[in-house]
Amino acid sequence: MLVSLPQVRPTPNPLAKEIAILGGGITGLSTAHNITRCIPNAKVTIYEASSRLGGWLNSELVQVDDGEVLFEWGPRTIRPDFGGAGVATLDLVRMSQSP
User: Fold this and answer.
1) Residue 7: predicted pLDDT
2) Is the pTM of the predicted complex or chain greater than 0.85?
3) Rounded CA gap, 17 and 59, in Å?
4) What tens digit of pLDDT does each residue of 1-39 get?
5) Which residues are the signal sequence here (predicted)?
6) Which long-range contacts (CB under 8 A, 24 or more apart) does 36-42 make?
């Protein structure tokens, strides 16, 4: 059964010139991406407490005898709430699959 997903929130204020996003996890990054699509001339700044972006998403390249292996960790869970950040995440996934 296919579920019809609602559209991402209405377009943010098109007159916004400077936008701050708190947190560089998947939600913060997808928010920044969507805002830059909606308001291309706005300056978007992401504030992240840790030394890297990605939140619970991470990759590590480990050297082994025959070369190297890439280990990837995902978030604890991505559960779309069909109306909030989950919709923005699904939108990002859809865009990454477009030709």
Assistant:
1) 64
2) no
3) 34
4) 566 666 666 677 888 899 999 999 888 998 898 889 888
5) none
6) 38/11, 38/12, 38/14, 39/12, 39/13, 39/14, 41/17, 42/16, 42/17, 42/18
